[in-house]
Amino acid sequence: MTNDLPLSKEQILDAAEQVLRRFGPDKTSVVDVAKVLGVSHGTLYRHFASKAALREAVTERWLHRSVAIPLEDIAARKDGSAADRLRLWLDTLIAGKRKFAAEDAEMFAMYAEVTLHAVEIIASHVDRLMGQMAVIIEEGIIKGEFKPASSIKTANAIFMATSRFHHPAHVAEWSSEHPNEPFELVWELLLSGIVSSHES
Amino acid sequence: MTNDLPLSKEQILDAAEQVLRRFGPDKTSVVDVAKVLGVSHGTLYRHFASKAALREAVTERWLHRSVAIPLEDIAARKDGSAADRLRLWLDTLIAGKRKFAAEDAEMFAMYAEVTLHAVEIIASHVDRLMGQMAVIIEEGIIKGEFKPASSIKTANAIFMATSRFHHPAHVAEWSSEHPNEPFELVWELLLSGIVSSHES
Lengths: 200, 200
Fold this sequence. Notes:
The structure is a homodimer.
Chain A: H1 9-23, H2 30-37, H3 41-47, H4 51-76, H5 82-103, H6 105-117, H7 119-142, H8 151-161, H9 163-166, H10 171-174, H11 180-194
Helix pairs in contact in A: 1-2, 2-3, 4-5, 4-7, 5-6, 5-7, 7-8
GO molecular function, one term (chains A, B): transcription cis-regulatory region binding
Keywords (chains A, B): DNA-binding, Transcription, Transcription regulation
Domain HTH tetR-type (chains A, B): 6-66
């Protein structure tokens, strides 16, 4: 039975996510998603040319909706110190990745796999996050809380220096440790590298 | 034809490495190594109870001989500043991992896989490296070059904050970038976190 109503991208991605979760990322095909939606596989192939494209689109939506949007809200706040906001931003990023890995291991493994190949999706996601972090850092510099520096370079440095806590390649290490202790050590070191000396 | 001379651990590991390299880590069995050495597989199983044990022993030797020993020499030096020595120690660690990944991709993949499971081997290797770094940092603190802090905690923080550049899980990112640029950003931030303010 096929359905002739035009499908929105969101509807397709909802169905794709549901099928990926039910059958597992390795076993899900574009045809399986078409069946759930009650459309021909030709219709679905016009949106996603391959299984890889489907997986990438689902990952991209997750990164946007569950990572970038909540972090955007934190970067846009104006209350409190820049250091506190930066810490909250990083804590939220790290907690989001750990929660996803712990609660949905199979989808997380798919996301980790996609990040290795979907270079453009990841680059544009990371660029967006770097812009958010740079806003927080820039404000800290203007308020004299942080030392003068290139806010975007500092954002990149902090993101790379905290990879062990949010990059999906490190998932194996997350489950065996207390989440906050090792990060606390790194955070103290990074913070002491950016605060202006009359603040510390 | 079997050989009755007692085998040293080094001889066995030399043969194992040679066979792993020739057949590939996935296809090498303990029996293949026994054949190369001209001993019964019973003899070899007394040394390595499984294929996994063989792979772990080869990885452990590589970590010891090609990573820990060269870094030990750097940590033991007394010339120059602590910051320069710390940078050389990190550069050597990073260059060693990149060289291994680039020149011997299959063995590197085996090492990356082993590190996920051989928790004790990796913990004892990392402890040794942390001791080396702490020696360099401690000297920087005594000379007034670095701020007073726990040298072992600082060593751990720097090691974690540079994971992206030496942890095998990041191998996919290394090949597509200029090796020094991103590390330089992180290094500047970390250094500015540890130098004492009258030095900077």
